[in-house]
Amino acid sequence: MTIDLIGAIRFTNSLLGSRAKDIAPVGAGDWSAAYGFTLDGQDMVIRFGEHVEDFKKDQVMGTFATPIMPVPEVTRIGETPEGFYAVSRRVRGVHLDELEAGEMQLLLPGLLDALSELQRLDTASISESNGWRLGGHRAGWGEELLSVAGPRDRLPGWRERLDSFPAESKIFDRGVSTLRRLAPRLPEYRGIAHCDLLNRNVLVDRGGLTGIIDWGNAIYGDPLYDIAWLLYWWSWYPQWQEIDLQTILDRHWERQGGLPPQMEERLRCCLLHIGLDHIAYCAFRQRTEDMQRNAVQLQEYL
Questions:
Q1: Rounded to whole angstroms, how far apart are CA atoms 77 and 89?
Q2: pTM for this prediction
Q3: What is the pLDDT along the chain (302 residues), one digit of tens a residue?
Q4: Residue 32 host element (H or E)
């Protein structure tokens, strides 16, 4: 769903009246568009999108916010003539993606601590909700990972588009075959993983986190997925290459009491899934260069 500034102003004013002021765009992704405004003097954001389940996840995670893991509160969710909207408190800061090496090196331990904090939450309500994958309607974590090769409601026709690139299609199928061989060995760890930490979804200021937003891709599965996410995408950020990510991770595990069980196998399966998922996604979005780069990277994990 797309909505322009005029449409956003009209809808927000119809919803909140003259209390809503200074409405202006603050960003847009593939699944939603966001507009900032002030409401009774408070900074707020209204987002518009087709998938209400994404906004409901944000609302749930807002109730779990802590100083270590800041998540903005979602105050209102509803329907629009073309989809759905969510109103939330606005957090300020610089996007994690924009940090230079020195800033990222200082910030990263705090982000890793926030991910650990996430796993100490009481996730019973999440695990019982159908809005979260693995909320009781899939057999297990391995099956969830292998579903990457199947039809997707949000990516109709992705396989047909991928098949028009024989080399990348062949690499994809090799990746699925490898994952199918490894997945049955995976333990059934359960936790929350954000699964989209690097797409302007983490905000920071003065060396600390100010907000972790956009939980639409979050899953109830192996929490190491977010560590794999950092490992997978690290090479895509040239400004961070002087940082010794592995040493920072090792120190994090030491603070947490030791390495996670079966870490190597779990991370490898997550890395395979990330590569497969993004080959399919880029094929659907017709982002050929990114699809080809992900295919090259996937081969490293075969």
A1: 13
A2: 0.93
A3: 578 999 999 999 999 999 999 999 998 888 889 999 999 999 999 999 999 999 999 999 999 999 999 999 999 999 998 899 999 999 999 999 999 999 999 999 999 999 999 888 877 667 555 556 544 445 689 999 999 999 999 999 999 999 999 999 999 999 999 999 999 999 888 888 999 999 899 999 988 999 999 999 998 889 999 999 999 999 999 999 999 999 999 999 999 999 999 999 999 999 999 999 999 999 999 999 999 999 999 999 99
A4: strand 32-39
Integer angstrom CA distances of residue 189 from 30, 141, 186, 268: 30, 8, 9, 15
Extract the tokens encoding 127.
């695990």
For residue 191, give every residue at least 6 positions away whose Cβ sits within 8 Å of its Cβ, in sequence order, or none.
118, 119, 123, 220, 221, 222, 223
> Do the beta carbons of residue 300 and residue 174 sit within 8 Å?
no
